Each structure stands twice: as C-alpha cells, then as structure tokens.
Amino acid sequence: xxxxEEVTDFVKNGHQHYLPHIxxxxxxxxxxxxxxxxxxxxxxxxNGWGLPGGFIQRREPLGQAANRIVRERTGxxxxxxxQFYVFGxxxxxxxxxxxxxxxxxxxxxADVEEGNWLFxxxxxxxxxxxxDYSKVTVTSDFFTDAHQWCDVNNIPDxxxxxxxxxxxxxxxxxxxxxxxxxxxxxxPEKFTLPEIHRLYETILGKELDPRNFSKKLLTLGLIKxxxxxxxxxxxxxxxxxxxxxxxxxxxxxxxxxxxx
Amino acid sequence: xxxxEEVTDFVKNGHQHYLPHIxxxxxxxxxxxxxxxxxxxxxxxxNGWGLPGGFIQRREPLGQAANRIVRERTGxxxxxxxQFYVFGxxxxxxxxxxxxxxxxxxxxxADVEEGNWLFxxxxxxxxxxxxDYSKVTVTSDFFTDAHQWCDVNNIPDxxxxxxxxxxxxxxxxxxxxxxxxxxxxxxPEKFTLPEIHRLYETILGKELDPRNFSKKLLTLGLIKxxxxxxxxxxxxxxxxxxxxxxxxxxxxxxxxxxxx
DNA sequence: CCAAAAGTGTTGGAATTACACCCATGG
DNA sequence: CCATGGGTGTAATTCCAACACTTTTGG
Lengths: 260, 260
Prior knowledge:
Two copies of one chain form a homodimer. By secondary structure, chain A is α+β, with helices and mostly antiparallel strands. Chain A folds into two domains: 4-175, Alpha-Beta Complex (Nucleoside Triphosphate Pyrophosphohydrolase), CATH 3.90.79; 184-254, Orthogonal Bundle (Arc Repressor Mutant, subunit A). In chain A, 33% of the residues lie in helices and 28% in strands. The first copy, chain A, contains eight helices and ten strands. The first copy, chain A, has helices at residues 4-17, 62-74, 91-94, 99-105, 162-176, 193-204, 210-219, 245-254, and strands at residues 18-32, 35-43, 48-50, 53-57, 80-87, 123-131, 144-151, 190-192, 223-229, 239-243. The model of chain A has no long low-confidence stretch (mean pLDDT 90). Chain A binds a DNA duplex through residues 192-194, 209-212, 214-216, 219, 231-239, 259.
C-alpha cells in the first residue's frame, strides 16, 4: 500500500518517470473450476470495476512494462503475455478528464495543475495474460481496494472502455487458440485429458468431442501421456499428461499452420 | 510543401496539437506488375529510406489518424487499414534523440529546448494498408524529398526500427490472408482469375495451384463470375470476376473459420 | 497455324466428423 | 453393485493436393 504523499507525488511528478499519454491495460485470464475468469479490480474513487493497468517507465521496454504491471498485481512472473490492440477511440479516451473530480474522489491536495499528465488523453495498449488462477495472490494499491475473478460470460459494466478491451481480448484469445497452443500457463504441470478438454471448451464456449480432441492434441505432438494416474474419488482414475515443451514452443512461434 | 517557419513551429509547438510519445508508422502495400511493394520515403536529414508516419492529433480517433496519414501521402481514402503492433523496444525507441543532430540536419533554428516533445521516447503504432498502386499519387513534405515503391523481397536497410516494422507487417499480412479475404483494395472492381491468383501468389511468395485456388474462392463465395470477358491480346480472353461484397465483409468481420 | 495464356475435372489420400460402448473406482 | 466419470476405435464424409490437357485469341 502506498501513502497519500506518494500518490500526490505520483500525480504531480509521475510524468518524470512514466510516459504520459500511454498506458497499459491488462486482461488477466485465469482458469478455475471450469470457468474462464478475468481479474477485476475495484477502483476506489470511481466506485466501479476495471482492469489492472499501469504506465510505462520512460526507458522501459514495452513487454517488460506489461510484465511488471501483471507481476505487481498477481505476483506472477514470466507469463504468456500478449499485446493485442491499442485503444484510443472511446469517448473516455478521446478527451481529457476532470482534475477536480479526481482530486475530490481521492481526497488529494487540490493543487493539481491544468494539463497534469494524468488527465490528458491517454491511449491504452491492451495485453492479455493467461495465468494459473490458484497461484495468484492479488495485491492492492492506493487506487483499488478489492478484486474479484469474474466469469467471462458474466462481465458487469466496467469503468472507462474496459468492456471493449475485455471483449477484444476474448475474441483475440479465441482466434488464437486455433493457431497457438494454449494451456501451458493455465494448467498445472501435469493434468488430465478431461481437464485440458474442459479448458478448451470453456475458452471457446462450445462443446468439443473428447475423442477427436485428444486425438488432435496427441497428433500435433503438443502433449504426451504419462505413466501416472490421478485418483479422483469413486471413479476411474484418469491418466496424467504433460505438455511437450519443444513442440509447444515451436507451435507458439510458428503457429499451427493452415494452407490455401 | 511546408515552409521552414512552419516546420520550426511544428517542432516547437507541435505538442499542443499532437500527442507526444506516440506516433503512427504505416506500411503501405501496393500491388503492381505482379509485385508486392511498399512505399518508402527518403528522409532528407537522415539521408535514408523510411516509412511514412505521423502523429495523432490530440482529439483524433486512432484509426482516423492512420487514415489521415495515409491519405496525406497517397491521396487515397477509405482504405483497408489495420493496426498490427506497437513498437517501443528498439534502441532507437527506448532513448531520446539528439536535438542538436536534428536541428543541424534540417538547418533549423537551434533554439529547440531540452525536453522538446519530438526528441523524447516515442512509441509507434504500426498500421498497414493495402492499396491499388496505380491510383496513388505520392506527396512529399518537408522531411522527405523522394519516394520509391520497393519490392518486399528486396528491402534495403531502413532508418530507425523500420525494418522490424515492415517484417512484422508482412508476417501479419501473410497470416491474415488465410483468415481474411484480401484483394478488395488491391484489385480493380472487376478482375480476372489469373489476376487475383497472381496477387495471392505474390503476397504469399509461393505458387498456388490455379484450379484449387479458384475452386476455393468460389466455394467460399467470396467472388462471383461475371458474364464479361476481357480482351488481352493474342490469347484466350479471361472472364471477369467481382467480389461478393456481403460475403467478403462477413469474412472480414468473422474471419474464415477453422475448427478444433 | 502458332505461341501464349486461360480454362477446367478427377482421383487418391488425409483429415475431420460423428458416433456408442466398456472400464475403473470408491462408497 | 452401482453411480459417476474416464477411456477408447471405426466408418462415413469432407476436404485437400496433385495432376495435364483442351480452348481461345491475335498476329
């Protein structure tokens, strides 16, 4: 948690450390309990839910900035993290924001000047991340006081243009799933076929034939069957599988190709 | 052409009209003579080739800015124009640039202050456009004095990180061609099968079986055969085809789908 | 009649879909 | 022994890739 003074300093002098006019918004997808969820934060002054975001340091590479922002919120590092769009056209992003409104909301010293960097038009670069839900510890900051993992099929009205951002992230993810392997960061190291099967069904929002599905992943060489099983109560024990890291990484780089 | 005074004003006061720290670089693909080319401009002071680019006006929607920038250079409006990546990590983009070097190069009044907006770190949003080469009239400006249409297989060393930008644009274009219809902006309204066939071969850089190719496009319903032929000299007259606008637009929006 | 380019159909193989029954486990 | 969920194979179909000859045209 940061102090009031630090926030005031951030508002007044943040532009010395961060690039003004550009921010990063991150859609952090987590998978749990057969649901695809995204991390939402409750923004104190605005009294509403929004995405985690942040600014880019003046000398910081972009991807590193996105990684830092996600790390600060989730504690996770070295994720599958992907740029997917720049948002700059919603009414909220086209115009400046009200300084007075802001300082009142956050109970800050009101001597913020006209033209302060935080209140000018700010484009936002959207990144999405795929994380293993259970490994995440969410950290709050001055501007946010609560979080929730929200089912993607049931997103409430979000602040700013964040509903657009989420939607675009989802469509991008669903498109990519056909061309890139997904799952490495969403599943534990060892997983069962039903687990990855449900993951894909959940992401795509439709049913997939279990026989054909496993055939496909095995044919592509993305996963391999282990000699272990997991005990799951009064049912047949499923086998465990693992990603084939080399094939997986190759598919990540090259994509899963189609032809004309 | 703009005057020296206007340029000085742009350097000194441009940040009042444009967003600092962000620019747009555009890769304008043109197709002609069975070659896929991109538009390069010769930058006067730097004495090298680079992409057309520009800044975003403070209240201007992003896509509109990209469109304006392309229009200013090519005279073309209402193009297929697509955002594909944000570049911010090359050494050139991570650090500030030298003011002295710049003012000397352009023979400008040297009283540009430290921290001038043009010399701070600037991210660039990459857009690519597909244009009908023959309709383009290239306009110069103060910073550039020549242009060329350069074959994509033979791109010289470009200024800044523009080689990266071109490469990413090309790979994006080639990926997209499998999932989105291409050609509407590159071909005349009525075209022949061999023409669109060569276009696709050129973009993909490989041969495509003409029989399978036409079958595919017709099956997808993207084009339809007209009852007219074109006379092409001492050879059999090819039939003319037209895009099916509805199917085309639908495919643009939804993508050409594949399944798991 | 000839050179150059356009047009067109078939077939074998691969990939994809659809589909249903048996197995293992713990209670 | 039963309820629950996991595991697996095959046949029909569709899609894709490979392939070569005939037609048209103007000179």
